[in-house]
Amino acid sequence: MRAGSRSSAARARAARRAVLGLPGAALAAVIGCADCAQPPATPHVMAASPEEAGRYLILVGGCNDCHTPGWDRSSGRLPASEWLTGNDVGYRGPWGTSYAENLRLSVQDLSEDAWVRMFRAAAGRPPMPWLNYATMHERDLVAMYRFIRSLGAKGARAPRAVPPGEEPETPYILMVPQPPARRP
């Protein structure tokens, strides 16, 4: 009989624990669902430091393609000490002629916040893919800023943009869509 009473007592304790545990389980479920109600976080690059993340983003974002003279001829093998010094070869299209800025000088004139606002505004000239960068996570934009700033100032400012209809004084790449050739 004693074994039976212990069994009943054990069952009573288990039932009490289950009943007392329900509010805790409910609270955990509510807290867990609170995350479900939030929109998913925008992905961003994780690295050992913001500067390392910025270096990676500069590479995969193709920033050197336009902002680093000789990048294409070097097959991407220029040292970081040569990166992002601007380009005096223009990009000419219906918007006029634009130049890839010397980002190493640009970041000296801007705070992190101003840098992020500039990309969020997406108001620059082509062929810079402003709309792509406007969607980046703020941490990534800040990481790019910090990496560029870590390189230090170097080089000269890029030429000023030339309005449509005016001839640039520098070499340029013509970026005007051409109609297909007519077939006989």
Q: Your description of this structure?
A:
With 184 residues, this protein is mainly alpha-helical. The protein has 2 domains: 38 residues; 125 residues, no CATH class. 46% of the residues lie in helices and 5% in strands. It has a 3-stranded mixed sheet with strand order 2-1-3, with no helix packed on it. It starts with a helix and ends in a 10-residue tail after the last strand. About 8% of the residues have low confidence. One of its GO terms (molecular function) is electron transfer activity. InterPro entries: Cyt_c-like_dom_sf.
Query: N- to C-terminal separation?
Result: 107 Å
Strand content: 5-15%
What coarse outline follows from CA principal-axis ratios? elongated
Task: Let me know the largest β-sheet.
Answer: 3 strands, mixed
GO molecular function, one term: electron transfer activity
Keywords: Signal
InterPro entries: Cyt_c-like_dom_sf (IPR036909)
Region (Disordered): 157-184
Offer a concise description of the structure:
InterPro entries: Cyt_c-like_dom_sf (IPR036909). This protein is mainly α.
Write the layout of secondary structure elements.
Elements: H1 2-37, H2 50-60, H3 63-67, E1 90-93, E2 96-98, H4 103-106, H5 112-121, H6 130-134, H7 138-151, E3 172-174
Parallel strand pairs: 1-3
Antiparallel strand pairs: 1-2
Helix pairs in contact: 2-7, 5-7
Q: What are its keywords?
A:
46% helix, mainly alpha, 5% strand, 7 helices
